[in-house]
Cytochrome b561 and DOMON domain-containing protein
Amino acid sequence: MAVCSGRTTSSGSTARLLLLALSLLGLCVALSHQQSTTDSCATAKLAVASLVPFDSTAFRCTAAWKQQDFVLRYKNTGPSEWSFILSAPDKGSYVAVGFSGKGKMVGSSAVVGWASTGGKGTVKQYYLGGKSPDEVTPNKGLLKLVKNSSVVVSRSGRLYVAFQLSTDYPQPYLIYAVGPDGNLPDTRTLQLPMHQSMVSRSFNYTSGMTYGTAGSGDAFPTERKHGLLGMMGWGVLMPIGMITARYFRQLDPCWFYSHMAIQVTGFGLGIAAIVLGFRLNEDGLKNVDVHKALGIAILAMATLQVMAILARPDKTSKVRRFWNWYHHNIGRAAILLAIGNVFLGLSIAQEISAYIVSYGVFVAVWVVAIAAFEMKRCYADDD
């Protein structure tokens, strides 16, 4: 019995060691596979830079379609010349990027690339005359591709489609598509199988930001909603609330309730802006970390202000003056940071000048109003 027990224990230990070894081996394989099939804007150098027929250094980069792991690199490489490199997982299918003036698939032109099982890459332009495969015409389209500059490279489980366009400025909507897994276009007719998935997005080439899905009827994409909510909450309502509290105390108690209502509304809008901000695509954008850190600092200060109301001492209390000092100065610091962060956000998004000018006018009027009220208080004190 002792011998049997020893053998059982030895066999159990061996089985556990074997299971552990297999688990570690599986983990290593999974990690190596993940590393070899991913690409991101954090990558210092393009993996296939030497195989691309044009200089790919200093390209802007954006996570174009996160659901399909599409990464787009691009640059205005010369007068009337734009260069693009689209990276996507190689699943034995084609990948495509189309250019559209209104975000519609029909009537647009697309660059489509794929690699055969032998590793040979093919890149073609297609005219999207309709939504069925028969209406998608190869070697046709409105894009002016630069000759001898298009290539498809399959490397480490990813497909890289590189091409150059001869245009002053590409069309504002990009349409991404991926074909069905393991189903390549016909080698003779070049007809594309029906795409597995497709998305259309407006694109800001200056900032690299994607503005929602085209054709959805959404005039205010998430990025712009974030900006407008933050501007109205932190950058407009809170400064107005400060004015009501400092310069309209003679209207007691109306000033207090007005101040509370304005600040609570601004606080709510600001929280909504921050929630939307964490959902945005920030790949390839400069100063986003600074903008995010300032937003969190403003939220912390505003939260302290709201909590301070709950601990507000009575007017006759000896600590009331310390509470006033804290409440007034934290509020002023939060407002100044908020105004600066609004301008920073507009700069990061490369928003149209109308937004920047409009907010600049508001800040100028706000500053002039404060100066006028302060002068009035000084003259009143002299009297």
User: Anything to note?
Assistant: Residues 1-9, 29-36, 214-219 have pLDDT under 50 and may be disordered.
